[in-house]
């Protein structure tokens, strides 16, 4: 590994550490501003909401301490890789989160792949047929997808493909009561994944399509592309090797920046489709005032966003060697 790459990795690691520390402190302070705590919900559900019981529960949960003390205790736990303990789930927060993390990663990865593939296809067609009816039709479709809320699209997908046509399941990630293994399990999981993944991807399909179209049209005006055309290279080769590769540079930046938006949108999509991921867990944690679980989710989400941006920087350096710092 070259000295330049190592220097870049060290710089990115330092930036990531400082950013994570800032995110942890900011999230902790913001969560402290939320009303109520787990003691109120726990006591209310158990019907024991007396002053003595509330004081005992707050002491047990550690929420009776000053905010600064709670922050120091929380940071000390993070140093030991301890995210806390969930009273509602009667399990460590890390265990609760990682049991849901894989489903969120699967959903977001599928949505991202759909957005990039479909958006690239739309963008290439729009750029190659600029000004013609396919360009205008796909531009109108992209604008519609961009301006339509994802939750509404998700509900309409359920009505059409689950209720009316009965082609795809509307909720969960597997058929209840079915004992499936191997390819049968993968097929069943894929059928449950299609609707939430597409609902999550629609907004980003529009962004990828418009960005690809704009970048390809701009790059086609560059001298090196005109030279390649003048040399008699086939149109498909010019598009793939010269135009599209350079158009991927701004696209990778956009994809890296939108990972956070995907994770944020997962709260709504996972709730609509009853998908057992971090978004649904965050929603339940807010309702149950399980702020220690919410802090863990925010921390893991922040780490995922930072990792995605680091990978984006490295990918851009590979696509364009001129990018050094």
Describe the structure in your own words.
The protein is mostly helical and 325 residues long. It folds into 2 domains: 3-92, no CATH class; 102-289 and 297-319, Orthogonal Bundle (MetI-like fold), CATH 1.10.3720. It has helices at residues 3-32, 38-46, 51-61, 67-79, 93-128, 133-147, 150-164, 182-220, 223-230, 235-272, 278-287, 291-319; strands at 85-86, 91-92. Strands 1-2 form a two-stranded antiparallel sheet. Helix 5 (93-128) packs parallel to helix 12 (291-319) and helix 7 crosses helix 10. The longest helix is centred in the middle third of the chain and has 39 residues, at 182-220. The radius of gyration is 24 Å and the shape is globular. The two termini are 16 Å apart.
Topology:
Elements lengths: L2 H30 L5 H9 L4 H11 L5 H13 L5 E2 L4 E2 H36 L4 H15 L2 H15 L17 H39 L2 H8 L4 H38 L5 H10 L3 H29 L6
Antiparallel strand pairs: 1-2
Helix pairs in contact: 1-12, 2-3, 5-6, 5-8, 5-10, 5-12, 6-8, 7-8, 7-10, 8-10, 9-10, 10-11, 10-12, 11-12
- CATH A-level architecture of the largest domain: Orthogonal Bundle
Q: Under the CATH scheme, which class of the largest domain?
A: Mainly Alpha
CATH fold name of the largest domain: MetI-like fold
Overall mean pLDDT stands at 80
Quickly give the structural class: mainly alpha
* Coarse shape: globular
Question: How many strand units?
Answer: 2
User: Strand-residue fraction?
Assistant: under 5%
């Amino acid at each position: 590994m070259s000295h330049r790459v190592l220097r870049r990795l060290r710089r990115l690691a330092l930036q990531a550490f400082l950013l994570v520390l800032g995110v942890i402190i900011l999230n902790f302070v913001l969560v402290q501003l939320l009303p109520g705590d787990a003691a109120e919900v726990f006591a209310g559900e158990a019907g024991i909401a007396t002053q003595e019981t509330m004081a005992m529960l707050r002491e047990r949960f550690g929420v009776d301490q000053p905010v600064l003390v709670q922050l120091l205790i929380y940071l000390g736990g993070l140093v030991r890789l301890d995210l806390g303990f969930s009273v509602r789930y009667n399990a460590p927060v890390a265990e609760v989160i990682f049991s849901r993390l894989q489903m969120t990663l699967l959903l977001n990865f599928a949505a991202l792949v759909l957005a990039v593939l479909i958006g690239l296809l739309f963008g290439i067609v729009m750029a190659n047929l600029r000004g013609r009816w396919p360009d205008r039709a796909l531009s109108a479709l992209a604008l519609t997808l961009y301006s339509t809320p994802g939750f509404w699209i998700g509900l309409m997908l359920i009505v059409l493909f689950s209720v009316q046509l009965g082609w795809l399941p509307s909720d969960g990630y597997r058929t209840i009561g079915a004992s499936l293994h191997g390819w049968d399990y993968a097929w069943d999981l894929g059928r449950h994944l299609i609707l939430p993944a597409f609902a999550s991807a629609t907004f980003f399909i529009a962004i990828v399509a418009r960005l690809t179209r704009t970048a390809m049209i701009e790059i086609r005006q560059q001298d090196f592309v005109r030279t390649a055309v003048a040399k008699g290279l086939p149109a498909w080769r010019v598009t793939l090797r010269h135009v599209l590769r350079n158009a991927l540079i701004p696209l990778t930046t956009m994809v890296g920046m939108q990972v956070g938006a995907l994770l944020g949108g997962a709260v709504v999509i996972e709730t609509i489709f009853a998908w057992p991921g971090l978004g649904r867990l965050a929603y339940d944690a807010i309702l149950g005032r399980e702020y220690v679980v919410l802090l863990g989710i925010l921390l893991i989400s922040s780490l995922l966003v930072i990792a995605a941006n680091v990978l984006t920087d490295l990918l851009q350096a590979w696509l364009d060697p001129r990018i050094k710092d």
